[in-house]
Design goal:
Elements lengths: L2 H5 L5 H20 L3 E6 L1 H13 L5 E4 L8 E5 L2 H10 L2 H6 L2 E7 L10 H10 L7 E7 L2 E7 L3 H7 L10 E5 L10 E9 L4 H8 L4 H9 L3 E3 L2 E2 L12 E4 L3 E11 L5 E9 L1
Antiparallel strand pairs: 1-3, 2-3, 4-6, 4-7, 5-6, 8-13, 9-10, 9-11, 11-12, 12-13
Helix pairs in contact: 2-3, 8-9
Amino acid sequence: MNKQEILKQYSKEEDKILVAKILDKIQYTSQKNQIQTTDFLDGYQQKMAQKILQQVRYQEGIFYGGYEEAERKMLFLFPEKLFVLLKSTLQEDKMIQKEMKAITIKLPNDLKGKYSHRDYLSGIMKLGIKREKIGDILVREDGADILVQEEMLTYLLSNLPQLTRFQKSEILSKEISELEVVPIQLEEITILVPQLRLDVIISELVHTSRTRANEIILQERVLVNYEIKTKNATMLQVGDLLTIRGKGKFKIGEVISQTSKGKLRVEVEKYVS
């Protein structure tokens, strides 16, 4: 494993830092025969981590976020012999779940239905918690389940009740096996565009001008497959996940048809919070 050669493949400093940490953890696991974990990784970081595992031919890594469809996941790195043993005895899930917990916030009756994902996340951020220490936040009408690293559990249970927005709420911990998974809600929409160019798609999705769409892109508020894009001419593909900060998240679907004037009817799925 040539660490420096791998790091040369990345230009962004934050990417290099993450790659270096993962490589160091892989080396530590191999040398010390101990399990290592990363923080919660978003989709873009997971793709980077997967590429690294392939490059160094490391097969004992598992991505896990608390439930099958989780968006943010931790990477668990196992020593080879332990990994084989856990796989053969079907114990890897139990081992992984020890490193992750869920915090349940149950809202009082007068607040039910009034809090969004942003309300829960911003509250946690006020406590000085870094985003990578928190996994998915599963919002329900009566509250939310928040995936956290086990090491953060005690601190959050002690400090979340101090926040004004949660003072009347019941806050407790639960095991991952008890997690109440909320189905992802999607709204199907159809847009009419001349091409699958980034600024064109954004203009249609948020009902704004191309000029304003370009401003949003230059403000680094647009991510494609979890990677920030700053070029308005970026072409999108079917299946791409488009995030527009402050506006929502969308999945680009199939081109349904083409009009007589050459415009494309495109299916898009909008994630409903």
